[in-house]
What we know:
Blueprint: H1 2-15, E1 19-24, E2 34-41, E3 50-55, E4 59-65, E5 72-75, E6 83-89, E7 92-97, E8 106-114, E9 119-127, E10 137-142, E11 144-146, E12 150-158, E13 166-173, E14 176-178, E15 185-191, E16 202-210, E17 218-225, E18 244-246, E19 251-253, H2 265-290
Parallel strand pairs: 11-19
Antiparallel strand pairs: 1-2, 2-7, 3-4, 3-8, 4-5, 6-7, 8-9, 10-12, 12-16, 13-14, 13-17, 15-16, 17-18
The structure holds 2-acetamido-2-deoxy-beta-D-glucopyranose (5 copies).
Protein name: Cell adhesion molecule 2-like
InterPro entries: Ig-like_dom_sf (IPR036179), Ig-like_fold (IPR013783), Ig_V-set (IPR013106)
Keywords: Signal
Amino acid sequence: MFLLLMLIAALPVCVTPMEVRSSVTVDNIKGQNALLFCTWTAQVSETPDKLFVLSSKQAYLLQCDVENSPYNCTTGKLLRTKYSLLNSAQGLVSFSISNLSCSDEGIYTCQLLQSSTLHQNSSKSVLNIKAYPSAPSLSNVQTNVQEDSNISATCTAGVGYPNRGQLIWKSYQNGKPVDLTSELYSTSLNVIQPGDDSCPVTTESTVTLKANIKHQNITLACFVVNPDIQPTAPDNCIPSTNLCSETKQVNVYRVKQPDPVVGSGPNVVCAFEKPTIFALSLIVLLRKKIF
Ligand SMILES: *[C@@H]1O[C@H](CO)[C@@H](O)[C@H](O)[C@H]1NC(C)=O
Ligand SMILES: *[C@@H]1O[C@H](CO)[C@@H](O)[C@H](O)[C@H]1NC(C)=O
Ligand SMILES: *[C@@H]1O[C@H](CO)[C@@H](O)[C@H](O)[C@H]1NC(C)=O
Ligand SMILES: *[C@@H]1O[C@H](CO)[C@@H](O)[C@H](O)[C@H]1NC(C)=O
Ligand SMILES: *[C@@H]1O[C@H](CO)[C@@H](O)[C@H](O)[C@H]1NC(C)=O
């Protein structure tokens, strides 16, 4: 009977535990900050005195004395610029993780402890990183080409994470869209850029087009398409508003054929030029007659 009473007396302590909750901001953009919140309630007898914040990748990030508010929180020396206390109030500690990188993705745990009884409780939150695509840049652009050799360009851009995008090419002639998809040959690969971390988000695409005289004045534009930002490529490349970059106009030149018979060259040129001059004179004459 005495034992039973003891149990009943002990029960409320067991069912009114220290309750802890954690949450993290939803949209966490690479390079920006994330906010993490730990909140708790506890019976007076269960008042915790320590709070630990841990991550799945880096053990202890933060340790706070939470007996009396405002709470005293400390971070590891190396982490001081990365994790900083935002707010500390009764039953609340919030802090920010700055300059998010992909390696900050993971599970964050708020763990409460009452040292005297060793009672503890914890709550986990998942932090996901999102990286927006970046404007593409062009390199190795070859737009002044001899007929039958390759017009080429390389485009490099961040394509986003975790929803990755891709690079697509469009072509224009004298500013108007032309469909050269059957002639454009492009290859893409993911590359690691300085500053990238555990989620490489940079793609490089190289395009080639065998130059023909009908390609005179074309331009090639590279667009990033990504479901989060720009799901399809716009009709025209406007670098200030679209994620795109465009080459300058292509110049295709013909190499003069070596003269088949010595001395016949000038004659060929004359035979070609004379009708033109003749035609022009005719037009001038005709115009004079009309007006
Ligand atoms: C821990 O906290 C959760 C959520 O606040 C609560 O449901 C649970 O009962 C607590 N557990 C203990 C052992 O205190
Ligand atoms: C905060 O905690 C640290 C380490 O636990 C301690 O050295 C420091 O004196 C404390 N500061 C205050 C204001 O209590
Ligand atoms: C032109 O590009 C195509 C496709 O990339 C390639 O197969 C070919 O070798 C290139 N030609 C020259 C002359 O570079
Ligand atoms: C942010 O982190 C990246 C590496 O992920 C680093 O290259 C960059 O310099 C950092 N920026 C700031 C403002 O600390
Ligand atoms: C190419 O563009 C130039 C001006 O940029 C223009 O004078 C020329 O007529 C164009 N040639 C063709 C074939 O479109």
